Input
Amino acid sequence: MTWYVVDGMDGSGKSTAAYELKDILETRGRTVLLIAHPNRNTKVGRLSAEFLTKKGKSAILFATVFFGLSVIQSLFKIKHSKCNDFIFVRYTLSVSYLPVSIVMPAYKIITAMLPKPDVKIYKDVDVQDALKRIEKRGETLEVFENLDALIDTREKMLMLTDDWYTINGRFTPDEVSDDLIKIINS
Output
């Protein structure tokens, strides 16, 4: 079993990369479970997503708590699944949405407490490109889906990803696929 995490800020293309990774693994005969967080297939995941569209500190607090519960539910799925490989879209880098003063301590605590994935992939992207992708979706914007929040989030994620594989958000789909194959083969 190999557990992959594909993380990055909103609009980075992490879900697209995760589905490409899933396709590559499945063409190799692997069975793959992909779970995006917050997991909208669960009540706590839907609540997290709902609170992300609301304003205010209490909404962010509830979104964070429900996000954490969504991740914990997914960890139990891994334990009880018979799949060869697992892919999480969003995991520990989500602490980057917290205030900068607590990002590093929260990351250290969370990564010490939670299981460690086998492969960590960070999908980086220019904030302007991310904002265009977000707006193109035509969905209700989440609280962190604005230029200032994206700039802030990206800076915090870059502080945490020294030991992550990084895929450039400006890569073509073929280049992303090539990078994912290199990561799988390493």
The mean pLDDT is 94.
